[in-house]
TrEMBL record:
Protein name stated in the entry: Malate dehydrogenase
Active site positions, chain numbering: H175 (proton acceptor)
HAMAP family, alphabetized: Malate_dehydrog_3
Boundaries of every Lactate/malate dehydrogenase N-terminal domain copy: 3-142
Gene: mdh
């Protein structure tokens, strides 16, 4: 990949940019932000880590949307994070205006790019970008489940004492309190977690995963999470750049899968060089299906709110 742009050089955007540079996923990283001088400053700061991490890709920042020109991938982290006590949906009204403006910049300056949405509420905003661009869902998708699954894996590692390297997890649904951790698809080197953990402990891990973002926000106080979110973005970029065809939970527009359409939410996707290659339909049991439907109802409420703002 030649050029990756990040719109929103805030905490998540900067963290992601640093990892992308260190890993040299592309030859050029562009940072676009509305704060005067800030994207230039962040770009320089990242560039000056090059001798330590041994990369030589270009890193530039600007307030001028033309910096997006020729991007292969645009990552959108622009927008307000929630404050303690708020839900992610509480920033919908302020962030939809930002996301619309950013989408128009992408349409004008990077019409061939793929778009990875991170800004919250990520399901509704990903939906918004699919509608405003009219692009195929393979090119417009969001990050949520990769982060939620990594949180769940770290909780399982803490509870069991096993290495996080051996733990695989799956979290579906909307990126909110109704998200759906699926313990049936969580293993430690292929062994179901129920082999090591009681139902009660698994329920507690599910609940902690659902509230994972709020837990960090309450502890950090003046910022929501950005280290793990930045790493989650980088994991998705890695899958795309290296055409790994990884099975990752992504926010994707549903076209009948899981009995849902005209909605974007977290589902397992095959992620590779063309973006979301396909949505994989897992055979959910009755409880998982009910939880997924409850989550879809919550996301739909946000989408309705979006429509009323148009
Ligand atoms: N999907 C996920 O898993 C996660 C989503 N988030 C979300 O990502 C977003 C960013 O979070 P942080 O980086 O912590 O916030 P932040 O406040 O540190 O950064 C946001 C940046 O967006 C910029 N911005 C605002 N309007 C803009 C515009 N029109 N064009 C370009 N840039 C603009 C701001 O100047 C600021 O630098 C929030 O909405 C947050 O809730 C955060 C963590 C995880
Ligand atoms: O909690 C938030 O608002 C930020 C976020 O989406 C996360 O860390 O999962």
């Amino acid at each position: 990949m030649r050029k990756i742009s990040i719109v929103g050089a805030g905490r998540v955007g900067e963290t992601a940019a640093q990892i992308l540079a260190e890993e040299e996923y592309c030859r050029e990283i562009a940072l676009l932000d509305v704060r005067e001088d800030v994207p230039e400053g962040i770009a320089l700061d990242i560039l000056q880590t090059a001798p330590f991490f041994e990369f030589d890709c270009a890193v530039q920042g600007s307030n001028d949307p033309r910096i997006l020109k020729d991007s292969d991938l645009v990552i959108v982290t622009a927008g307000f994070p929630r404050k303690p006590g708020m839900s992610r949906a509480d920033v919908l009204e302020s962030n939809v205006r930002i996301i619309d403006e950013v989408t128009d910049h992408i349409l004008a300056h990077a019409p061939n790019a793929m778009v990875l949405i991170v800004s919250n509420p990520v399901d509704a905003l990903t939906y918004r970008v699919t509608q405003r661009t009219g692009w195929d869902r393979s090119r417009v998708f969001g990050q949520a489940g990769v982060l939620d699954a990594s949180r769940m894996a770290s909780f399982i590692a803490q509870e069991t004492g096993f290495s996080a390297l051996d733990i695989t997890t799956m979290v579906l649904g909307g990126h909110g309190d109704t998200m759906v951790p699926v313990p049936r698809f969580c293993t430690i080197n292929g062994v179901p977690i129920s082999y090591f953990l009681t139902e009660e402990r698994i329920d507690a891990i599910n609940e902690r995963t659902r509230k994972g973002g709020a837990e960090i926000l309450a502890l950090r106080k003046n910022s929501s999470a950005y280290d793990a979110p930045g790493a989650a973005v980088a994991a998705m970029v890695d899958a795309i750049v290296n055409n790994r065809r990884r099975l990752l939970p992504c926010v994707a527009l549903l076209e009948g899968e899981y009995g849902e359409a005209d909605i974007a939410m977290g589902v397992p996707c095959v992620l590779g060089e063309k973006g979301v290659e396909s949505v994989v339909e897992l055979d959910l049991n009755a409880r998982e299906r009910a939880d997924f439907e409850r989550s879809a109802t919550a996301v739909r409420k946000e989408i309705e709110q979006l429509r009323s703002l148009s």
